[in-house]
Amino acid sequence: MTQANKQHTVSATQNNTDTNLDSNWQDDALDLNAGFAPQTIAVRAGHHRSDEGEHNEAIFTTSSYVYKSAADAADHFNGSKTGNVYSRHTNPSVRTFERRLAALEGGERAVATASGMGAILTMCLAYLKAGDHLLAAKQLFGSSIGLFNNYFVKYGVEVTYVDCFDNDAWAEAIQDNTKVLYCESPSNPLGQIADLQFLSELAHKHDALFIVDNCFATPALQKPLDFGADVVIHSATKYIDGQGRVLGGALVGNDELMQQAFVVVRSGGISMSPFNAWVFSKGLETLNLRMQAHCQNANKVAEFLNNHPNVSTVHFSGLDSHPAHELVKRQHHKADSFGAIMSFEVVAKGDKSAKQAAWHVIDSTQMVSITNNLGDAKTTITHPATTTHFRLSDEDRLAAGVTDGLIRLSVGLEDVDDIIADLQRGLDSL
Fold first, then answer.
1. Which of 85, 152, 182, 389 is most buried per CB count within 10 Å?
2. What are the structural domain ranges in the chain?
3. Are strands 231-235 and 209-213 parallel, antiparallel or unpaired?
């Protein structure tokens, strides 16, 4: 553990013994020390059967739990007994999801939250305080930037943004009071890639935490903890569910850092519902298989867009021309798997503005879903400048690379020829 981890652990372990999350993997149905492959872990890890002996994971839709006696209740609340206390922070369905995700990411423990933004809020509350400095990538989801700029700056946290791919900029911007380095890799919406090994070493040299949003890649493609990251963040709403059904988020890391996150979720009620956790557990079972299919489709769609005369730029690390193509090949552990999120710039022609040209392509689709969600089995398309990033100032939006002509595409699991034909309709008619 780095010195930064130790410093960030002290306040969370005092007077917070009622975690009641049994993190002893030896009790699991699957012995994770037995060298099982990721797909087996995705299907089997974390499931504790009840006395009923159910084969499928149960959904524990209960707010509270019954104890054998007043003394038994007291022991659960003071932490001398492990078990469930209250579903705001301890629930068997949520625990199954947390254990399964932690196993896939290679972390000691995961903490589930109500949404992806809930996970980012938990990160800030757990690891930052007034007077601290957050060093973040410019290339972030718009709501993340809004959270940092509108709230945490107000409460005394200093925030600096740098390009996620510029190692020199990260090194120059780090300060004595920097406590967290934070990035998305790949980023939203341009899919830019950060050098995870470099940033982890830089953070630890300055006793800071390195935290990575792994939403776009998922553990099926990339494990940031293997490159020295301290915490991995997910919007489980995306690929972990994979079908756009429910909201959820999670943090993964070592037990001490996750204890701090757990205290925030317990105290603030940023908790995941049992039903949503059950959906995510089932989503993890097929995550590896789905991501392989997503990536195969995305590679073909990116080649089509890259060769279309009405597309000026394709932002996708799977293209040989992408500046981080070799880096992402080192950081992703599956050959030819670069994720399935891409953005592209359309050419404004005639009297059409860049925004009008982008809207024309989007509105010409007949199958692709016009929605801001991503990571779905269904291909989705959106105009970031007027949706996901519209609340940002013009300056912040351009700093994030979000122009009026930019379209974000989340390539789904339909037949790839149908996806291409749907995009081609609008591009050909510009």
1. 182
2. 3-285, 290-428
3. parallel
- CA separation for the pair 340, 216 (Å, rounded): 8
Residue 72, both tokens: 């038994």
Write out the chain's pLDDT in tens, 430 residues.
Answer: 444 443 333 233 333 334 444 433 334 456 665 678 888 888 888 877 777 788 888 899 999 999 999 999 999 999 899 889 999 999 999 999 999 999 999 999 999 999 999 999 999 999 999 999 999 999 998 899 999 999 999 999 999 999 999 999 999 999 999 999 999 999 999 999 999 999 999 999 999 999 999 999 999 999 999 999 999 999 999 999 999 999 999 999 999 999 999 999 999 999 999 999 999 999 999 999 999 999 999 999 999 999 999 999 999 999 999 999 999 999 999 888 999 999 999 999 888 999 999 999 999 999 999 999 999 999 999 999 999 888 888 888 887 789 999 999 999 999 999 999 999 999 999 9
User: Are the CB atoms for 158 and 130 separated by under 8 Å?
Assistant: no
CB-based contacts of 212, cutoff 8 Å, min separation 6: 182, 183, 184, 185, 194, 196, 224, 229, 231, 232, 233
Q: Give the CATH number of domain 3-285.
A: 3.40.640.10
User: What is the Cα Rg of the chain in Å?
Assistant: 22
Tokens of 184: 């998305």
Helix (H) or strand (E) holding 346: strand 341-346
155: which 2 tokens?
């409460």
Number of other residues whose CB lies within 10 A of the CB of residue 387: 15
CA pseudo-torsion sign 134, 140, 146, 147? negative
Handedness of CA 343, 346, 352, 358 (dihedral sign): negative
Contact between residue 203 and residue 181 where contact means Cβ atoms under 8 Å apart = yes
> Do the domains 3-285 and 290-428 sit in the same CATH topology, yes or no?
no
Residue whose structure tokens are 């070799």: 326
Estimate to the nearest angstrom the gap between the alpha carbon of 243 and the chain centroid: 16
The residue type at 417? D
Q: Kindly give the interhelix angle for 3-13 and 116-127, rounded to the nearest 10 degrees.
A: 90
